[in-house]
Design goal:
Oligomer: single chain
Number of helices: 11
Shape: elongated
Strand content: 15-25%
Helix content: 25-40%
Radius of gyration: 24 Å
Structural class: alpha/beta
Order of helices and strands: HEHEHEEEEHHHEEEEHEHEHEEEHEHE
Number of strands: 17
Distance between the termini: 43 Å
């Protein structure tokens, strides 16, 4: 096992322990089931773990996230609006798997390494599965839009975020309502001969599995741990992989590369990476405050979060601005930064070009800086 798989295996072991103690059913699915059947563990190039839980047990689990204690965190549609997950995930709070951050809409929620927990919902046929999947996708978009609205806390929004919220039909204060509707629409059929997973997108979300295959479970070895799989595991794999689930020749095997710009850390919490963004105005009251950027983001920071603060100046790369001022704040050359910053300073990047500025600061040997994200609410007075 590589480092990521080692953490995921630890999460799976804790998940299995808790569900067995609570007498809740679960089944390995997709690559995890295939790995158990073919490798007695991870497929060598796989980088996730999937388990499925029948809706009745899934709802019981969703209602009791406290069953898992730190560093484990059961992320649900209800308890982590910043993530607005499509299904539950069990995460390790002391690790990091960070994608698409910051997105400017929400703070992203918990971003520890995780395993996926997918509900098995009853459906009468494949058309019902497709309808449920389509309705679920619409409601999830409204969850995303509403979570983004709520993150702003009623404050002024950037044009791009406002468009995002309205495009997703978000409604301020209604995230919890849409999240509950989402769960209900996925489980809207009280009976049916098949299981489906409407929470999944694409082809997988519309496939159906005979419930008889899941009526009983059998145990399979997975990296030395006995895990639960459906008694009809062969049939389940045949539906999951209609193109065949034979062993691929080495040259055709995919490489388990993480997505571009993804941060993975098995030793440090995601909070150590995100605090540069989330804590821009925390503990700033007695600091000398410096901004990098003299545009509209500076205005927003000054109006919302800087009342009563000691704002010394702003730095900007536009030479024409040096010696002038913006919104009453003097503007200086970035070359002056090293001589002005000390242990009592707080440097905040306030610019849409924060990535480029952060790279510039790193090259200057300046590592102690924070980044303001327009679209987040840092709280009155922060």
């Amino acid at each position: 096992m590589n480092e990521i798989q080692t953490v995921q295996f630890d999460i799976l072991r804790e998940f299995a322990r808790v569900l067995e103690r609570k007498k809740l059913r679960y089944f390995a699915m997709f690559g995890t089931l295939l790995g158990a059947a073919r490798h007695a563990g991870f497929i060598p190039w796989d980088r996730d773990i999937d388990v499925a839980v029948p809706r009745e047990e899934y709802n019981r689990l969703r209602a009791m996230p406290e069953m898992f204690r730190l560093p484990y965190f059961l992320q649900t549609t209800s308890n982590d609006p910043g993530a607005a997950p499509t299904f539950m995930r069990l995460r390790r709070d002391d690790t990091a798997y960070i994608e698409n951050f910051p997105n400017g809409y929400t703070r992203g929620g918990n971003m520890g390494i995780c395993i996926d927990i997918i509900p098995l919902d009853r459906v009468p046929d494949i058309e019902a599965a497709r309808r449920a999947q389509s309705a679920a996708r619409t409601l999830h978009r409204q969850m995303l839009g509403s979570a983004a609205f709520d993150e702003s806390g009623g404050a002024e929004q950037s044009d791009f975020k406002e468009k995002y919220c309205y495009r997703h039909a978000g409604v301020p204060g209604c995230y919890s309502f849409f999240a509950e509707c989402y769960e209900r629409i996925c489980s809207s059929f009280s009976d049916g001969h098949y299981y489906a997973m409407p929470v999944l997108r694409g082809e997988r979300g519309s496939r159906v599995y005979d419930r008889e295959w899941f009526r009983e479970s059998v145990l399979m070895r997975f990296e030395g741990l006995e895990i639960s799989v459906p008694a009809g595991w062969r049939e389940t794999l045949a539906v999951s992989y209609p193109e065949g689930f034979y062993e691929r020749p080495p040259r055709y095997r995919p490489v388990a590369e993480p997505p571009k710009d993804c941060i993975i850390d098995t030793q440090r919490s995601y909070r150590e990476y995100t605090r540069r963004y989330t804590d821009a105005f925390s503990g700033i009251e007695n600091k000398k405050v410096f901004f990098f950027g003299a545009g509209d983001s500076l205005r927003i920071c000054l109006e919302r979060y800087c009342k009563g603060l000691n704002v010394v100046c702003a730095f900007d790369n536009a030479r024409a601005k040096w010696g002038g001022s913006a919104y009453g704040v003097p503007i200086r050359s970035p070359k002056e930064l090293p001589t002005l910053l000390d242990s009592d300073s707080r440097l905040v990047i306030a610019s849409i070009y924060y990535k480029e500025i952060a790279e510039q600061l790193n090259k200057m040997g300046i590592q102690d800086y924070f980044i303001f994200v327009d679209g987040w609410n840092y709280g009155a007075g922060a």
